[in-house]
Amino acid sequence: MPAQGGRWGRFLEQRARQLQRQVQAKEERIVELETENAVLHLRLAQYQGMTGKGDSTATRLCSQCRERDPPQRSTAPATPQLRCQVQLCVLVVQNLKQDMKALRASSLEVFRTCREHLQDGLSAAVEAVQRAQLCHEALLAWQSKAGHLERSLQEVSARYELEKQKRKMLHNCLVELNGNIRVHCRIRPLLPFDKEFDDPASQDSSVPAGVVHAVDDETVLVKCDRPAHPLINKTYNFERVYGPAESQQVVFGDVCPLLTSLLDGYNVCILAYGQTGCGKSYTMLGPRSKEARVPPWGPHRDLGILPRAARELFRLISENPSKSLKVDVSIVEVYNNEILDLLAKERRTAVSGPKHDVRTSKAAKREVSPPTRQPVHSAEDFIALAAGSLPLRARLATQVHACSSRSHLIITATLTAASPCGSPADQQSPGPPLEGRPAWGRASPGSPGAQRPAEQVHAKLQLVDLAGSECVGVSGVTGSALRETLFINRSLAALADVLGALSERRGHIPYRNSQLTHFLQDVLGGDAKLLVILCVSPCRTHVAETLRCLGFGAQVRQVQRRPSWRGQCGPPKTQEPVTC
Predict the structure, then answer these.
(1) What count of other Cβ atoms lies within 10 Å of the Cβ of residue 271?
(2) What Å distances lie between residue 211 and 274, 399, 541, CA to CA?
(3) CA gyration radius for the chain?
(4) What angle in degrees, to the nearest 10, is found between the helix axes of 2-68 and 80-178?
(5) Calpha distance 369→363 (Å, rounded)
(6) Whole-angstrom distance, CA of residue 211 vs CA of residue 208
(7) What are the two backbone dihedrals, phi and then psi, of residue 186, each rounded to the nearest 5 degrees?
(8) Which regions of the chain are under pLDDT 50?
(9) Residue 66: its pLDDT value, please?
(10) Which distant-in-sequence residues (6+ apart) come within 8 Å of 129 by Cβ?
(11) For the whole prediction, is pTM greater than 0.70?
């Protein structure tokens, strides 16, 4: 409404200036007419002077004629010359009289025209003043209405902020009711390289293929009868179970609520766990291209969680531009119990790459060499950065999988927001506590992974594609590949030990037994939203690894952590066990 009031004011100013110009033009015209009138008076005076002059000349001539030739009654008529002069004078006098009449008539016409123009100008000015008064009254009415609307807008904005806080609290309650730590299980279909793929029984749609079956959305059944082995008939319950026919979109549908929590300020971690060749990388990244070693990142119905999450993240950020959130991405791999930075410049030329150690000081505080953090401004930048780093990941062909990942991949998206003016850099913004923040999120300003000045970490999203556990006898690896397998199995066992200690609420949590668990300590022991996706194979050959994976998931479900407490969902629980 203030904008409309401003337009009315400008319109009135323009109209007043226009009327002023018209009155000024009328005044100039009056001056011109007065000038013309003065000129006509001057000419009239000249004509009158000429008439008087002609009369005096005629009189003088007559007197001269009388003096020279006294009138005689018997004399002859006047000379022709004198008669012509008299006639000429008479004509001049008559012309002057006619000019005077015409001048008087034109003067009267000029005065009448000036009077009419002046009356028209005064009428227009009066009308303009009346319209200006009406517009001013309307402007005052609009200003009053605009003030009322501004007050209504402030009230609605306050109510909106209150409702947004309530939605945030209710959403967090919903997520915590589902579990701050959630475990999903995904059963991959039989593939051409599986021995059971050519089994006639697997071709029969009426007979369930494989030994692992999704009974319903929350139950997994493992039923296997092998010669010289006891019968296996076990069921496992998880928050969500995906059958072989479930699409990538369905899997990502259960991830979207976690991204909303991420924008609300909660750390989120999505972790894929399972045996080699069970679909972890497919679930997290998508299918592999035949031409290249990286997944296809364009529009594809089989896109994994990473590209879908990147697009959803920037969509949510664009819907709430008031937060002014920025996204930085770091990509590391844990290879042979060493943390390697895949975004470092020297990593692109050296196979070993820069190492980043995770250490704990005497004050029991983590000190982590910060990995490189690259800013991204769109989902396409995020996806392109990940696609450029994935070829650097350690891979090897084994008897179980043609392109087995030999390292744990951790992709971290850090959301930063500008700090409030006059507040210290470490001041917490109004929102949930962020106990799950890694220490390298607060690196020194000079380090490659340091956050920019006047910014604070809002939340972090970690996407973890673990290397697959495997049996040495089945994979057939030797030499350096055998060493890689030992490190992989050892780090996964350390992860299971940490989760077991958390589920039993021991006083000591062995995070430092592996670089992987030490790097993920804030996610495992903090208040982050953790989603573990178990990827299992339906093959009878891998039933032992499948049971081990499902047992790991059942152990994760037993972990109970203190929910992030801000008065939303109930009082805080007992204090967490002390970790070393």
Answers:
(1) 24
(2) 16, 21, 10
(3) 49
(4) 180
(5) 17
(6) 8
(7) -125, 125
(8) 73-76, 201-207, 292-293, 348-354, 358-368, 422-450, 563-580
(9) 65
(10) none
(11) no
Q: Quickly list H helices, 410-537.
A: 472-475, 480-503, 515-519, 521-525
Which structure tokens are listed for 248? 């990538």
Per residue in 502-540, pLDDT tens?
A: 888 888 899 999 999 999 988 887 778 899 999 999 988
How distant, in Å, are the alpha carbons of 175, 253, 464, 527 from that of 269? 14, 16, 7, 11
Distance CA 381, CA 177 (A): 35
Give CA–CA dist 106/338, Å, rounded.
111
Whole-angstrom distance, CA of residue 450 vs CA of residue 49? 105
Sole residue written with tokens 């043609």: 402
Nearest residue to 530 via CA among 481, 461, 578, 483: 461
127, 209, 550 from 194: Cα distances, Å = 94, 12, 20
The dihedral region occupied by 570, where left means phi > 0, alpha psi between -120 and 50, and beta the remainder, is: left
Dist. CA 157–CA 141, nearest whole Å: 24
How does strand 529-536 pair with strand 268-274?
A: parallel
Residue 456 has what pLDDT?
Answer: 84
